[in-house]
Every structure is written in structure tokens, then in C-alpha cells.
């Protein structure tokens, strides 16, 4: 039996943790070693990540793990997408490490289109080159903003890393750019996995920043001596998982299959964002995909994650902050209970409306949206919570319809993975709004996917060759099915959602 321990560092946009995993008795066993908050900080009007604080927490987690486990074999980091770090030739950080919600990206999508030939031609060119949905948070627009603002980093930087790569660099001393997270940059060709040099140059972004792209399961080397010393981790390999959290989460979906030609299941990776889509064998860079604004992100084993970013539990989470600001400390449980007892469909909100992207106060933003769209404000606190969940479920319904058109098949089952599966009200709403069976779990999909890919990279699962991942993925998913329970929700009042769904579509006009 192989009982070697692997450490997943899983950084989400609001919290991070270090989770140990090992296969024991034919099951994947998890143990949370360390958990910490990830709070961005406002520095001179720019929203930035506290990477020093995060690194200190990661080191602390690794130190605790080293005291707890003897045979630690590898460590790997996954994070949210799109954000990056620039370093100079002396291995110093060359620019502020910004949060994707920073306001400096405003207007950059339009600016990029203009540079690339105008609103229509620029959009067409960029989509054709990258197959990605347009979101101003994408790295390419952040870099364009740096170019447009004459940021010094554009002259002094000589290396670009996504967030996971950055922490792998700190761990191993080696620079790398892992493929799945790089695919969120909107600078890669989804067909070849290579940088779209011509487009990048046209935007004035220095291409010398962009090094070779590495596949998940690649071993970078061992933890570097300075890190080994402070953590006590000796001879531990740094192995690239799918560093994009969503790609790791999708790997941990408990299905029997991989990248089907005609998928009849889809996933929702549910957290601060909801990433809803299908896993496919190859990208769909089609007109319809562009029209629906879906993305072709890179998955493990050369698969494509055809998905859409939906506003997730962000609004729900921010409502809690609004309440705190009003001196009202509410727990998640009580928010769900209050949402449950609130009257349905009082106020419909579109979770993807720009008003909700980064408001100072979410409750005020919802009130503003209500009056703007001529709807009544909720009569009680629970009404706000309920509206944020119903809005999301309605969004899922619309997204499902688009997905079915894109993959030209009926989606029978929706798999929800991630922290959002704990919100059972939302899971039931999803089954009802979409009129489909919903299967939830595992809740720790991202960390699990991270661990699985490290096991693949160290030869614990599959052949150990990053080029031959199909069998390894099938084995990984089997292990997930055998290790973690799932929960099934069947639709029971689907018809109730028809009228609100029509109103909801009207909201977008
Ligand atoms: C989810 C996620 C999404 C990405 C968003 C911003 O955590 O990684 O996939 O679009 O965060 O990075």
C-alpha cells in the first residue's frame, strides 16, 4: 500500500488552506492542516493581494504538516485564475500584485478591441485567437492596462507567472507557467496551448515575459533549501497540479468518463464564482460560443473546459458583510434559514450585472438594482438572501440552455462540486430551476483535484507521464467515487420557475 502524503495548497479568492491527502484502504483520505483568510488590501486606490501574508500562511501550513506526517512526498498549489506576478531579471517582484476586481481594468476590453481593428473586428480576432469569454478581469486586459498606464513593470519585468506559478517559484526556486491557469489569461491558443504571440504583440504587451507552458503533473524539482529549513520539509517534490482551481475541481467530478464527445452531464464548480460547463475533448471556438460568451479554458490531459463564469455566491457572501456593517452579525446557517422562509421571487436579480461586481455595499447595490428595474425591494432581510440565490439558479437555467445548444445534446445531470454544495437550498433551487437531477459533492473538489494530479505526477496513479493522462484521469475519478459520498437532488417544483425565468430574461434587455 502506498501511504505517501501529498500536500495541496488551495488558494481561493476569500480563503486558503493546506490539505494533506493520502490513499489509505483504497480511499483518498483528507486532513485539513491549516486554514487562513485571503483578504485583499487597498493600497493607494488599487486593490491588491497580500501575497506576503499568503506566503507566510503557506509556510506555516507546511511547517505544521511536516510535524504531523513523516512521509510527505510532494506539494502543489492551485489558485483562482487570471491574476499574475511579474518579476525582473534579479528575481524581484516587478509590479504590484493586483486583484482582478481592481478598477484599473475598466474599459480595457473596449480598448483592446479598438487596437485590434475596432469593436467588431477586434472582438472577432481575439475570440478566434483565444476562444475565451470576454471578461475585463482576464490577464490580457490587466496587462493592457499596465501598458496603457505606462507602468514601469512593462520595461523592467522579464518574467510572468500566474498566482500558482508564483508560489511554486517561491517553493522550488524555479519559474514555470502551468497550462490550465495560463489558459485563463486570454493569451493562449486553445487548440495548440501556445502563446498567441501576434495578438499579444499587437496589444503592446512584451512577449519576452511569456515563457514555455508546462502541463499538470510536471515535477519542478524539490522544495528549495531555504524553504526546507523553515518548514522542515525535506526531499519533498514540487509537482504542478492543474493550478487553476476550477480545472482541479473539474478533475474531481465523480463521473465515470473523461472528455466525452457528446456530454450528457455538466458541472458547476460552486464558490465565490460559479463556473458552469462541460468537459470536452477539444475546444469549440465557434460563432455561437462567442455569441453566448462561453470560454474554452484548458483542462487536464488536453481536455477543454467549455464554461461560463457566473456570479456565484459572491453576492450572498457580500450580503453578510453588508449586515456586519449594519451591526448585524449573521451566520451562513441563519442566512439560509431566512432565505428559505422568505417569499419566493419577490425581486429578481441578475448576479452577473456589473452593478454587483465590486460595490462598496451589496445591500445598497441590490436596492439600487431593484429601483432601476422597477421591482419592489425585499420586505425583510431574508428576501435579499433569497434573491441572490434565486438569481443564481435562474442564471444556471439560462446557462444550461446555452450549453445544450453548444454541445448539441441534452444534459441530464448537473454535478455541483465545491463549497457551494453546502448551501442545500441553492442546490435544490438548481434542480428545480433547471428541471434536472443535481448531484453534489465532493465539497473539497479543488483540493482533491490538486492532490490527484500530484499523485499522477509522482506515479502513485497512472503511468506518471504528463502526456498520457486519460487512464490516470479515469482512475482518479474512480478513486473520488469510492472515497466521497454524493447527494442527489431531484426537481420537485420545476413549473414554478417558468414565469420568473421569463421575467429574468427580460431583465437582461
Ligand atoms: C474561480 C476562478 C474562476 C476565475 C475566477 C477569477 O475561483 O478561478 O475560474 O475565472 O476565479 O480568477
TrEMBL record:
InterPro entries, per database record: ATPase_NBD (IPR043129), FGGY_C (IPR018485), FGGY_N (IPR018484), Rhamnulokinase (IPR013449)
Carbohydrate kinase FGGY N-terminal domain: residues covered: 6-251
Carbohydrate kinase FGGY C-terminal domain boundaries: 266-456
A Pfam family the protein falls into: FGGY_N
EC number: 2.7.1.5
UniProt entry tagged with the keyword Nucleotide-binding: yes
GO molecular function, one term: rhamnulokinase activity
CDD domains assigned: ASKHA_NBD_FGGY_RhaB-like
Keyword Iron: no
Residue intervals passing through the bilayer: none
Similarity comment text for this entry: Belongs to the FGGY kinase family.
Full protein name: Rhamnulokinase
Phylogenetic classification of the source organism: Bacteria, Pseudomonadati, Planctomycetota, Planctomycetia, Pirellulales
